[in-house]
Amino acid sequence: MLLESDGLKKSGRSWRRSMTRFLIRSQVLMCALLISRAASFANTIMYTVVDMGALPGGHSGLFGLNQAGIAVGWSLNSSYESRAVLFGQGGLWNLDTAGNTNSSQARGINNLGQVVGTSFIGPGAEATIWSGGAASTLGTLGGTESYGLAINDHGQVVGSSTTADGEARAFVSNGNGLTDLQINGIWSAAYSINNLGQIVGTVEVEEGVFRAFLWDPVTGYHQLGTLGGDSSYATAINESGTIAGSSRLSNGQMRAFLYQNGVMTSLGTLGGDSSYAYGLNSAGHAVGYSTTADGQTSAFLFRDGMLFDLNALIGPGSGWILDEAFAINDLGQIVGTGWHDGQRRGFLLQPAAPSFPGAEAPEPGTWVMIATGLLLIGARWYRRNGASAGHGCPSHRKDAASRLIPAFRQRKV
Q: How far apart are CA 397 and CA 233, in angstroms?
């Protein structure tokens, strides 16, 4: 029995030595594979940039986007006057062909292809709908100016217009004149409307103090509050009622926010002291722009609780600097304005295929952390089993790898 016991001890020690060697070799091999994988992911391109082009004046910008990927904005003509343009259907199209405007700009497009914006005619401005090759101005609330800022799939337009006494008021229109939303304040503007007729915007409640608002066709006007500062601005609302915008903090800095179920949540920044959200899709993914740690401005995407610098998600040799993002659709396409070859240009970001089905590419640092975690598992096993006395196989333990592997990392908010 003594000989049998000694044999079991020797057998156990031999088994542990073999397992230790196997684990160490496996971890080293895994580290090499993961670090190699990290290097390949370092060059992953999550978006491709589509240049919208420009009219002969060379500069352009995009503000609106529908679910079909058709975008609208502005471009300079040969006289360097801004013209409302549509990008899609094989090219860039000048919407302002009537010849009676000083300039124009398109701000939104619905899923029927109706475009809303503003035409500057003489000394004034008028909210305008472009549809079927024709332009229709919507008039004003009695003043000399109105600005069309958004349109839903029912053709309802929202924006801001001056009244006869020169005050600016948020309005809604069904295509036949403007209706004042009757929001009390010094100045107000409506920036977005969903298909339920819910409208968001901003009202100046006292000199220099602004508040984001929601206007509901059933329950009426609601102020949304702030992130601790004196002002807030609501710029987008989706079909589920999630709202995007920006607000001042108590220290005066600006922060992009999402507003859901009565709660306003900061989206953080890209390392700088301010951020602004402008576009929102059905999934609650928001786009906008933020200052960075070096004081520059960069377009961002917010999704899954994280803020991403869009310049880090395109090819490093693209030649683009993406300053501002203004709209995102349910396909994940994004439009905005940046710089390319020294010119101000509108861009459309087209999502690239993920690196493997159903997953996004982690940062290289994440793979290194995974490898480190696996090495720690092996070392921990060796300390507990390989270097200790005992008999037979180690007891079965719950795999700890799932607790050690970190989640996909980007800029945390």
A: 53
The DSSP code for 141 is B
AA letter at 120: F
Question: Which amino acid is it at 202?
Answer: T
Q: How many CA atoms lie within 13 A of 329 on its CB side?
A: 20
Task: Report phi then psi at 38, rounded to 5.
Answer: -60, -40
Q: What is the pLDDT of residue 175?
A: 86
* Residues contacting 128, CB < 8 A, separation 6+: 84, 104, 116, 117, 118, 119, 135, 136, 137, 138, 148
Q: Which residues contact 302 (CB under 8 A, 6 or more apart)?
A: 256, 258, 267, 277, 285, 286, 287, 288, 308, 413
> What value, to the nearest 5°, has the Cα angle with vertex 150 and ends 247 and 77?
105
- State the first-to-last Cα distance of the chain, in angstroms, to the nearest integer: 65
CA dihedral angle for residue 243, residue 245, residue 250, residue 252, rounded to 10 degrees: 180
> Within the chain, which residues score under 50 in pLDDT?
1-13, 15-16, 19-20, 22-24, 26, 28-44, 355-413
**What is d(CA 108, CA 198) in angstroms, rounded to the nearest whole number?**
16
Q: Which two tokens stand for residue 259?
A: 């507003």
Residue for token digits 């960069």? 298
Tell me if 213 sits within 8 A of 222, measured CB to CB: yes
Decide: 98 and 84 in contact? Cβ < 8 Å.
no
Nearest to 60 by CA among 97, 95, 89: 95
pLDDT of 406 reads 25
Q: Which of 305, 310, 332, 304 is nearest to 323 (CA)?
A: 310
Kind and range of the H or E element at 10? helix 2-41
pLDDT on residue 409: 21
- Mention every residue, 6+ apart, whose C-beta is less than 8 A from residue 124: 140, 144, 145
How far is C-alpha 335 from the chain's CA centre? Answer: 10
- Per-residue confidence (pLDDT) for residue 18, from 0 to 100: 52
pLDDT of residue 176: 86
The count of C-alpha atoms lying within 13 angstroms of the C-alpha of 360, restricted to the half-sphere facing its C-beta, is 14
pTM above 0.85, yes or no: no
Contact status, residue 314 vs residue 351, Cβ threshold 8 Å = no
With beta carbons less than 8 A apart as the criterion, state whether 64 and 106 touch: yes
Question: How confident is the model at residue 98, as a pLDDT?
Answer: 80
- What's the token pair of residue 354? 């993920």
Name the β-bridge partners of 141.
163
